[in-house]
Amino acid sequence: QNCFICGKSGAAITGSEMGCDRSFHLPCAVEGCCVIQYYLQYRSFCCDHRPEQSVQVVPEANTDCTICMEPVEDQRSYSTMVCLACHSAWFHQGCIRGVALHAGVGYFQCPLCRKGIQFRNEAFHMGI
């Protein structure tokens, strides 16, 4: 299979959505805005079929990432995530991935409100 992101052969991950024939390499997933869920069924989604957060809030003007303190986009997107528990902590996907790697599953929680279970479940759903 050819990777739809880089175009090279050897892509072993295919989209889990019915009818999706896209394949990609694991390292290309983040670059191509794909989501890989590392729990239960270990599903993967291309950029067109990836899950989105269920919350309908958008960041206020001049909202910064709670981790790196750099501005987040002024709309919901693949590259940002909001805490479902407090709705006020916004993160870049890359920033919250780093926190998850360092904290581990048992201690991964929203850095602002410290809610664990709801935050963790949403992060898992979004491929963190």
From TrEMBL:
Spans through the membrane: none
GO molecular function: ligase activity; zinc ion binding
Domain spans labelled PHD-type: 1-50
Alphabetical UniProt keywords: Ligase, Metal-binding, Zinc, Zinc-finger
GO cellular component term of the entry, any: nucleus
Pfam families in the cross-refs: zf-RING_2
PROSITE patterns documented for this protein: EPHD, ZF_PHD_1, ZF_RING_2
InterPro entries the record matches: EPHD, PHD-type_Zinc_Finger, Zinc_finger_PHD-type_CS, Znf_RING, Znf_RING/FYVE/PHD
Lipid biosynthesis keyword on record: no
Top-rank taxon: Eukaryota
Location of the RING-type domain: 65-114
Matches recorded under PANTHER family: PHD FINGER PROTEIN, PHD FINGER PROTEIN 7
Protein name: G2E3 ligase
Origin organism lineage: Eukaryota, Metazoa, Chordata, Craniata, Vertebrata
